[in-house]
Amino acid sequence: MKHYIGAGNPMRAQFKAKAAYKAEHFAWSFEAGVGTITLNRPERKNPLTFDSYAELRDLFRSLAYATDVKVIVVTGAGGNFCSGGDVHEIIGPLTGMRMPELLEFTRMTGDLVKAIRACPQPIVGAIDGVCAGAGAMIALACDLRYGSPATRTAFLFTRVGLAGADMGACALLPRVIGQGRASELLFTGRAMTAQEGHAWGFFNALHESDALLKAATKVARDLAEGPTFAHGMTKTMLAQEWSMTIDQAIEAEAQAQAICMQTEDFKRAYEAFAAKRKPVFGGD
After folding, report:
1. How far, rounded to the nearest angstrom, does the alpha carbon of residue 278 sit from its chain's CA centroid?
2. How wide is the angle at C-alpha 121 spanned by C-alphas 115 and 122, nearest 5°?
3. Residues 6+ apart with CB under 8 A from 171
4. Which of 19, 86, 192, 200 is deepest in the core (most CB within 10 A)?
């Protein structure tokens, strides 16, 4: 059996391929360890299509192996984040499908949220303007969310005759903003204002629209300079501990922290502290 270890191994090029990723159904850019996904159909407020759903899912799945990408920013073009599934390219065709096709679609949309949650890198959402339906679920799946005073977030599934239970909404949203508030939004489909979202913990902060992406990117770059292996461990434990007892969580964190104590970044931090300088982390 071959062991692919070290700078000369043939897997390294594949792991670093996402820096040069060529997106087909959205824009992708990469700089200083931060990959930026921009939903870019601004004339329609950046709706999703069958193809963009699938490509986003596949990109997030593959980012687990992209060691050059430390943090991901997700944003939208033209002053809006995402208006959800395209009415003509998704909603219309769905009305003519039978159950097996419908279930294939709904599982694919859920797989996008699962891929975002399972992606080890922190995901930072820069969410301006309209953020609705599937767009609201992509935002909800992010680890950190930054909005603008103009942001309106709507889980509007009931407005199109569907349940509020879509793409994990009934599991994720109550954990972020509380059961009562989530219930109201999922039953009514009304838009949550930016101010409500900030007060309720959906948004970490609000910035004016013209400063939003810059502020979110600054957070992402700061994270990218940190101990990225440890960041991945934090994200893993935040997800896994939802279903643990307190005793199980404490034991799981003991094991997770012992693993992190074996990293070079842990040693670098100690050496920097002893030398009274800022640590430079390498992610290993």
Report:
1. 29
2. 100
3. none
4. 192
Give the single-character DSSP code of 82. B
Report CA-CA distances (Å) from 150 to 127, 158, 163.
9, 23, 26
Angle, in degrees to the nearest 10, between helices 179-188 and 169-177: 130
Contact 113, 72 (CB under 8 A): no
Q: Which amino acid is at 199?
A: A
Structure tokens at 116: 């975002």
**Interatomic CA distance for residues 284 and 181, integer angstroms:** 40
Whether domain 12-224 has CATH 3.40.50.1000: no
98-130 per-residue burial string, b: 16 or more CB within 10 A, e: under 16: eeeeeeebeeebebbbbbbbebbbbbbbbbbbb
The pTM assigned to this predicted structure is 0.91
Query: pLDDT band at 13, cuts 50/70/90?
Result: very low
pLDDT in tens, 16-32: 657 678 889 999 999 99
Q: Quote the tokens at residue 106.
A: 């709904």
What is the Cα–Cα distance from 46 to 37, expressed in whole angstroms?
12
Q: How far apart are CA 258 and CA 16, in angstroms?
A: 27
Q: How far apart are CA 248 and CA 255, in angstroms?
A: 11
pLDDT of residue 17: 53
Q: Is the dihedral of CA 256, 257, 258, 264 positive or negative?
A: positive
- Alpha-helix residue ranges (DSSP H) falling in the chain: 12-15, 50-62, 92-94, 99-118, 134-141, 169-177, 179-188, 194-200, 209-224, 228-240, 246-260, 264-274
Whole-angstrom Cα Rg for the chain: 20
Judge contact between 26 and 51, C-beta under 8 A. Answer: no
CA distance 39 to 78: 9
Q: Which amino acid is at 112?
A: L
